[in-house]
Amino acid sequence: MAQLNGHMQHGQTREGQPPAADPDRPAAIDVAHLVKDYKSTRAVDDISFRIARGSITGLLGGNGAGKTTTIAMIMGLVLPTSGSVHVLGAKIPEQSYDVLGRMNFESPYVDMPMRLTVRQNLTIFGRLYAVRRLRERIDQLAADLDLKDFLDRANGKLSAGQKTRVALAKALINEPDLLLLDEPTASLDPDTADWVRQHLESYRKARNATILLASHNMLEVERLCDRVIIMKRGKIQDDDSPDRIMARYNRDTLEEVFLDVARGRAREGAS
Fold first, then answer.
1. CB-based contacts of 120, cutoff 8 Å, min separation 6
2. What angle do CA 6, 52, 94 make, to 5 degrees?
3. CA of 153: how far to CAs of 6, 42, 116, in Å?
4. Of residues 123, 104, 85, the one with CA closest to residue 174
């Protein structure tokens, strides 16, 4: 862990419990006994968690663990078989309309219209969110995320890394209180990825925003997240701060923990 200490950010609580949502106040995300079945397959199997406002939580797991389905249910895109989801105090999907303007989603694997320029794409999404002073907001994002050189280039002519930065700009266009991220630094070189992580942390501090982050970049999760939820086969395998999880598995990195969970190795002290 010594080699990682230089990368720690303000968001991480490296002592004690991870930040818990105050039971007397609405959590940013409140998931209770959530289940999702697809015919004979149970993608999400009775999971529950509450995420405090202003925190950054990592949602980890291998392919088929249930991460994407869980995020889709939080967004109201997929209906749960049973259980409940509340986001920013609103029941999802029944009250989605009340909070959709306060949340956003980013994934480099979801393309925006290829023939439209970056500026045109951001303008359309900004109008969907009824962003005030939209031109100023786009100019600010272009400066913050270094988009100026290709702001008027067609999205289909961008590199993978440029598309990732544009996708992040789209996710921040409405200055969301809740940001759901799927592999936010995919296809970025290490320097740009580090810069994006710093921007996300600065945004969280400035807005007291809540971030739920799905990633396979374990160092990224260690750096950004003050809490980690690990899923496997639709169930939650562990839920704690990164340091406490690594200590339980007697591992120095989350990547080693991830491999232990994926390969079915018991954590230290487990019966």
1. none
2. 135
3. 38, 43, 8
4. 104
The model's pLDDT over 193-223, given as tens digits with 9 standing for 90+, comes to: 888 888 899 999 999 999 999 988 888 898 8
Contact 257, 230 (CB under 8 A): yes
Tokens encoding 184: 């936010």
Contact 214, 71 (CB under 8 A): yes
The set of long-range contacts for 96-102, using a CB threshold of 8 Å and a minimum separation of 24, is 99/178, 100/76, 101/129, 101/130, 101/174, 102/174, 102/176, 102/177, 102/178
Alpha-carbon span 85 to 74, nearest angstrom: 6
Helical (H) or strand (E) element with 181 = strand 178-182
pLDDT band at 192 (very low <50, low <70, confident <90, very high): confident
Pairing mode, if any, of strands 227-232 and 56-60? parallel
Look at residue 124 in the predicted model and tell me its pLDDT. 97
The residue among 161 and 66 whose pLDDT is bigger is 66
Q: Cα dihedral sign for 126, 111, 57, 231? A: positive
Residue 2 contacts by C-beta under 8 Å, 6 or more apart in sequence? none
**Contact in structure between 105 and 176 (CB atoms under 8 Å):** no
∠ Cα 227 233 239 (to 5°): 15
Residue 104 has pLDDT above 90, yes or no: yes
